[in-house]
Amino acid sequence: MTTNKDQNQINQVLEGNTNAFGVLVDQYKDLVFTLALRMLKNREEAEEVSQDTFIKIFKSLKKFKGDSKFSTWIYKVTYNTCLDRLKKNKRQQQVDSIDEFTEKHVYTIDNALENMVEAERLQAIQECISLLPSEDGFLVTLYYFEEQSLTEISQIIGITANHVKVKLFRSRQKLARILKDRLEPEIIAHYEK
């Protein structure tokens, strides 16, 4: 499943060409940093975890068998490294209660989003995603922005695809509540002018 370009770079690294690893780092560094930042919500820690992730990838590259995409394997290493950091720091993630949303609430959120300019909408959504608990933001990012399938995400975080689907549903509900709280007042204020 690994692309020929990735496999070529991996083979070169395994043959001792460390410069080829630099190419892989350049290709995936933004992705690793974004995922780490989503989980850790701290820029400095995300930078450290990104470095740790690439060190782990370099040291265990020979263990990559090519059963999945190389990017999926990188996501998994990033995810596990972030979990290790969260455990080390003994951070407690606040679990929000999940409220039921009526069709009217979803309609209101959709209308609020449609009334925003595309760039502003993306920025607002990114800001709202950063307010989600770490794992929720990570799942939403993988699924919607990195376009990973449920199966790929299940391989990354080590749970079944059905469990990923449930977690993603709950993450979307949390995001919908955040979007409603943050965006609806902006839209109302805009029309009251």
Describe this structure in words.
This protein is an all-alpha fold and 193 residues long. It folds into two domains: 4-89, Rna Polymerase Sigma Factor, Chain: A, CATH 1.10.1740.10; 103-192, Butyryl-CoA Dehydrogenase, subunit A, domain 3, CATH 1.20.140.160. It is 77% helix and 0% strand. The chain is built from nine helices and no strands. It has helices at residues 4-14, 18-40, 43-59, 70-89, 103-114, 118-130, 134-145, 150-157, 161-192. It is globular and about 55 Å long. The chain starts with a helix and ends with a helix. Residues 91-102 have low confidence and may be disordered.
Structural class: mainly alpha
Mean pLDDT: 78
Number of alpha- plus pi-helical segments? 9
The first-to-last residue Cα distance is 54 Å
Helix content: over 70%
User: How many domain regions?
Assistant: 2
| CATH top level class name of the largest domain | Mainly Alpha
Sequence of secondary-structure elements: HHHHHHHHH
What would CATH call the architecture of the largest domain? Up-down Bundle
Main beta-sheet annotation = none
Low-pLDDT residue spans: 91-102
The total of beta strands comes to 0
**Outline type:** globular
Tell me the CATH topology of the largest domain: Butyryl-CoA Dehydrogenase, subunit A, domain 3
CATH superfamily of the largest domain: PhyR, sigma-like (SL) domain
Give the strand content: under 5%
Radius of gyration: 19 Å
